[in-house]
Amino acid sequence: MADRRRQRCAPAAALPLLGPAVAALLLAPGARAAWQVSPTVELRESWSDNVSLRRDGQKDSQFITSITPGIAVTNQTRRLQVSAAYRLNVYDYSDGRVAGTDRMNSALNATAKGKLIDDLLFFDAQAGIAQQPVSAFGPVASGSEYSTNNRSEVRTYQVSPYLVHRFGATASAELRYAHDMVDSDDSGYGRSTSDTASLNLSSGPAFRTVGWGLTLRRQRLQDSIAPGTSSTMALASLRYVVTPTFSLTATGGYDKFDYAGMGGSTQGASWSGGFAWNPSTRTSLQMSAGKRYYGNSYFLAATHRSRSTVWNIGYSDNVTTSRENFLLPSAVSTADMLNGLFRASYPDAAMRALVVEAYIRAFNLPRSLPDSVNYFSNRHVLQRQLNASMAWRSARTTALFTLFRTRREALSLVQYDSSLLGSSQQNLNDNTSQTGGALMLDYRLNSRTSASLSANVAKTTSSKLGLGETNRQLRAMVSRSFQSNLSGSLEVRRNHGGLALEGSSYSENAVAASLSMKF
Asked: Rounded to whole angstroms, how far apart are CA atoms 220 and 178?
């Protein structure tokens, strides 16, 4: 993919919208005492036989020196909860930087929840910076963050104030407004913003046998590539309690989109019927089936947690965009899985969050368990996704396993992707399918040393162009804590996959040693 870049703009541009609210929370009694700031720095020396992940026969081997300063900020008070982690990666190459490599890049994952007025006014906010794949048909730079081949930086933010009111035991209401932005370095992928207003009404404790709910939602989307669009959704729901653990559910509503479609309706009625079963606080199962304007629609959410395992199975279908997936990833959260595993050992939620974050950083785990590539597209798509994941923990071993299958069918006009893919490949994303799985295994050798192994494989096909490729990654690492604030690691990895758009393949073998210090 061409390395098309433009001037970067930080998601922090939205933060003034929260200025007065955040200032008031920071001045609240006890707020400043709750802040925890943890600076870090990591020095890494890597060797790769294909530093830019080029096709076989065009490899360029180099030593890569990287220094990564970072900072983690947390705050847990009654009025404000903040969790933010930022890392700046700076790279230097033994034989000079070549095409397809980066000089520096960033990673940001920040969330905030605040209570401005007790029982009335609240806000949520999030911001992120990540290096994302441009196409599902290209190299997957797992562990090779210095490569820009088929990657571009994506920046997002979302600010959402909302009002909550309870009408005694009869009902509760939530009125929410959300403003968000998605931008990238790829000039073919539009900078977009959206504004969403929603109203949720739900029955209160007075309705013991029959519960009800009503949701109204209106969104306006502005895009620098595709025309602006809007969507409206109205949904009513009913819940009939058969037993304390089993309920029947039903929904009915209407969806309306105004994107320029490729034929077929862009609006229509919706309905579903199903059940919810919650035999214990550790197990839940929800299933439903129905219809929406695009055809049959199904939903599944099953979870089970024991003392040493967490299981999740989910299926959903919906009309979405790549920007929406960047804002609200559908992947399984690594932190959520570990949170369930560590619940028994760390009952306090704030302490458990710190332990989970430290665990993810110590073993360089991804923020989400690998699933289908959320490739760049300026079109609306119908996405059908199935995820199954399991986490297991013993005295010395932690394992995470996931399987996925995702199908995306483009709904809006193909020309909106011509600036991104070119006229000869603009149909690439018309109908894609991705199937794969991943395994991450960590074994604690002693109190200071651990060994980990991760492997994942994914197959991607485009039925429109008749293309298909498979990508595989294998990674082994040994890490050791020398002191409470000093740790190191030694890593070996191999990436291998197809380059369907070039009719070729690529591979990378790499080793890396790192030293990380926490201040």
From this structure: 11
pTM, entire model: 0.86
Position 12 scores a pLDDT of 43
Whether the predicted pLDDT of 14 surpasses 50: no
User: What pLDDT does residue 88 have?
Assistant: 96
* 322 contacts 376 by C-beta, under 8 angstroms: yes
d(CA 54, CA 64): 16
Average pLDDT over residues 230-239: 96
Closest to 322 (Cα-Cα) out of 410, 210, 208, 403: 410
* pLDDT of the residue at 510: 96
Residue 388 corresponds to which tokens in the numbers above?
Answer: 């199954």
User: What distance in Å separates the CA atoms of residue 489 and residue 491, rounded to the nearest whole number?
Assistant: 7
Q: Tell me what percent of the chain is helix, strand and coil, each rounded to the nearest 5.
A: 10, 60, 30
Interatomic CA distance for residues 371 and 459, integer angstroms: 11
Q: Is 18 helix (H, G, I), strand (E, B) or coil?
A: helix
Using the structure block, give the residue that is written with the tokens 């196409």: 135
The pLDDT tens digits of the residues spanning 354-399 come to 777 777 766 666 666 666 778 899 999 999 999 999 999 888 998 9
Q: Calculate ∠ Cα 240-241-246, nearest 5°.
A: 115
Q: Distance between terminal CA atoms of the chain?
A: 40
Tokens of 145: 């963050």
- How far apart (Å, rounded) are the C-alpha atoms in residues 268 and 298? 17
Residues 184, 419: Cα–Cα separation, whole Å: 14
Query: Are the C-beta atoms of residues 189 and 160 closer than 8 Å to each other?
Result: no
Query: Tokens 């995306």 label which residue?
Result: 408
Quote the CA–CA distance of 94 and 65 in Å, as a whole number.
8
